[in-house]
Amino acid sequence: MLTFIIILSAYLIGSIPSGLIIGKTFYNIDIREHGSKNLGGTNTFRTLGVKAGLTVTIMDILKGTLATSLPFLLGANDINHMLVGVIAVVGHMFPIFANFRGGKAVATSAGVILGYEPLFFVIAVIIFFISLYFSKYVSLSSMIASLLAFIYSLVFHTGDWALITVIGIFTIFIFYRHRANIKRIIDKTEPKVKWL
Hints:
By secondary structure, the chain is mostly helical. The chain contains ten helices and no strands.
C-alpha cells in the first residue's frame, strides 16, 4: 500500500502545472495558447518573461526533487528513489491537472537528479549553460546536457544501474519531446535566447 501511495503521490506532484498556475494566477494568460503551447519553463520565459520563467523552472525542478525524496520522507528506503522520480517526470509530461498536456521534462528530470545526487545536478546545469552560451538554443542545450549526463553516469557510476537506467530514460524522454525543436534547429527557425 505504501508503494502505491508513493507512486501515486509522485505522479500527482509531477502533474502540478507550474506554468499554467503562474500564467493564469499572475498574468491571466494560458501559456498553452502562446508560443510553443508548452507548459514548461522555456515557453514561460518566452511568453511571460524572465521572472515568470525562473519561477516556473524552479517549481518544476522542485517537483522532481520532492518526488524523489518521498521514499526517504515516508520511511520506505527499500523503494528506489530514482524510479519514483521517473513517475514524477511522466506526471510532468502528461499531467492529469492539465488535460495531459505538459512540459518537456527537462527541469523536472533535473530535479530528480538534484534529489538523488546534488553534485551530478550541478555538473548537468554547468553543461547546460555552457552549451546555451555558445548555441543560444535552450532546446539544443537541454538535449546536450541530458546526453552528456547519461555518458557521465556510464563512466563515473558504473555500478549504479538504477541511476544509469533512469538517466537513459530521461535522455530518451527529452529527445522525444524535443523532436519538433530538432526539425526547427535543422531548418534554422528555432528561436534563440536573447538574454545570454
